[in-house]
Specification:
It is built from six helices and six strands. The protein is α/β, with parallel strands linked by helices and about 170 residues long. α1 crosses α6. The site of inosine 5'-triphosphate has 18 residues, from β3, α4 and α5.
Length: about 170
């Protein structure tokens, strides 16, 4: 299985490799434009970013599938606070499927800085004194005391968006 991933962030590449390990994939990282803001602010914008990444990565290669992963923030009816969300999209050039990873509430101080226009990656680095957290454990790792991490969290989005291509239930 040959996969084109629309990002050069090693965490996203690893999430795809590890989740689809049993298919022994060849994974190509493609530097594409997500077509949405650096910090998406809704489910819709986050999903659109994932879709654009998937389609553009496939278009740039000879892969079997294009995979897009996008992080964003959003508020949800009935759930207090601003949350970090992550969505995946997978396309074979014909259909496109979407699925999400986990959702976690961001600390109020982080939410305030995002509301003022900052991006989550740099805000988390500033808060924790780290450099490139978004390319390692991620906010998902830091905010759960390591119970999960960004690779595993994104892996869920990969699994949920790939499922429809790997089972017969959606045909
Ligand atoms: O190179 P790309 O693929 O763009 O990788 P990225 O880390 O920027 O990932 P996204 O664009 O999908 O994420 C949008 C923003 O949210 C940040 N972000 C998302 N998840 C994060 C996490 O777990 N930890 C820290 N920052 C995160 C990220 O750094 C960006 O500022
Ligand atoms: Mg980005």
């Amino acid at each position: 299985m040959k996969l084109a991933v629309g990002s050069t962030n090693p965490v996203k590449i690893d999430a795809v490799k590890r989740t689809l390990e049993r298919y022994e994939p060849t994974v190509i990282a493609v530097d594409v434009d997500s077509g949405v803001s650096e910090q998406p602010w809704s489910i819709e914008e986050t999903v659109t970013g994932a879709e654009n990444r998937a389609r553009r990565a496939l278009a740039a290669t000879e892969a079997d599938y294009g995979v897009g992963l996008e992080g964003g923030v959003a508020r949800h009816e009935g759930v207090p606070g601003l949350t970090l969300i992550m969505w995946g999209a997978v396309t074979d050039g014909d259909r496109i499927e979407r699925g999400s990873g986990p959702t976690l509430r961001l600390p109020d101080g982080v939410a305030e800085r995002l509301e003022a226009g900052a991006e989550l990656g740099p805000v988390m680095d500033d808060l924790l004194g780290t450099d490139g957290l978004a390319e390692s454990a991620g906010a998902a790792g830091a905010l759960t005391a390591g119970l999960t991490d960004r690779t595993r969290a994104l892996g869920k989005a990969v699994a949920c968006s790939f499922g429809p291509f790997l089972t017969e239930y959606y045909d």
